[in-house]
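Proteins fold. Shown next:

***
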Amino acid sequence: MKTLGLLGGMSWESTVTYYQEINRHVRAVKGGLHSSPCIVYSFDFARVEALQHAGRWDEAAVMLNEAAAALQRAGADAVVLCTNTMHFVSQGIERTSGLPLLHIADPTAERIVKAGYTSVGLLGTGFTMEKDFYKSRLRDKFGLTVVIPDEAGRRAVHDIIYMELCNGIIREESREAYYNIIAALEKAGAQCLILGCTEIGLLVAEADNRCGMPVFDTTKIHAVAAAEWAMDGKT
């Protein structure tokens, strides 16, 4: 098997899910005591979050690039960036490390297209919902129409991620707020839902019938895609 290099800690709450889901999938496919060779570079998320909210994205990109190069020196064969938001500044990872980046949006979009959906509701950090890097990839590469919450909804989703989920806090009031925002996305024309932040799966599950439409969790889908890559080495 190939060795996966995980860029994690953004936040570590979801990096735990990545490690679990990658290894569960490898065990399910290969059986026995098999697991995935992984090297984890885990950031201090407080530093990353401060750069994000200060708009210092160039500095955040340098941190990612340096970490990806460190993974390459440690023996990784590919980079798995365990966060949706930081794909905004992921363009230099392949060039700096010489390793393929397994992009988080692609396996989710592929599943959505295969299922026959053309319009998706997107939940994520404010950066992911409002900046064009993620929506344009879904639109231009996969032909998907992307629906995002209104301004108040975006703020609520963003604040719950950073103030609660990244700190391991799960509140029923926040879950209800998400359900209401999801219902509004469906009313606005979304046929399915992308959990476009790796922490949202801590609050809303793929199998959650309260959502009212099919749910695609980027964390779990990305992890499974990474495990598949590790087993066959194909991008």
